[in-house]
Structure formats: C-alpha cells, structure tokens
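Hey team,

Filing this mostly as a record. A colleague (T.K.) asked me to run one chain through the structure pipeline before their review meeting, and I want the input and output archived in the tracker in case anyone asks later how it was produced. No errors, nothing strange. Just documentation.

Input sequence:
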Amino acid sequence: MSGLSETKYPLTLGLLAHVDAGKTTLSEALLYVSGARRSLGRVDHRDAFLDTHNLERARGITIFSKQARLETANRRITLVDTPGHVDFSAEAERTMPILDCAVLVISGTDGIQ
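Output structure:
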C-alpha cells in the first residue's frame, strides 16, 4: 500500500471570462492534456468538443454552458465551460450554484473587460 488514498475526490470547476478571452480554448487544452480527448479541438476550426450547437459553431462563441469530465491523479473534475458574451450572461450565472471553484480567464491582449 502506497499510503495514498485511492479515492478520487470530485471537483466542479467553472471557467469564466468575457467573450473571446479563451475559455473554450483552455477547456479544450485541459481535456486534451488530461487524456480525456484524443484530439485538440479549436473554436476557429469549428470542431471544439464543448461547442456542439450549430449556432455556436457558426458564430464562433459559446452560447450554452457545457460540461465535460477529466481526471487527475486524485481528482474527478467536472469542467464547466460558460458563455462570455453579455447576451448570454444569464446562462453563465446559472452555473454558479454548482461550482466548487472557478477560474477567471483574462485575455492577455484584450485585458479585463
């Protein structure tokens, strides 16, 4: 026995930011690096795993909050990608009660908006 717990603790993690800050791109990278996805989707290629609705792919923005699962050595993470456009802020706000924590993504080129 290694002394480490075999239990994988659950965590619900939300990504929040303004539109075009890179939330979905970060989500795709986390899923890919964790091994949850075998290919790295891209918003600009219209093949992002979490942007499944035709409107999202056509507009290149997230409209509906989506969730995906990934795992680390000791965590089962439910990743929640939220919309950033002000027109869909209510959709992002609806995710708040279920989150254990959130990452605020800020665009390096656009700054805080």
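Quick notes for T.K.: The beta strands are 9-16, 66-71, 75-81, 101-104. Helices lie at 23-34, 54-59, 89-93.
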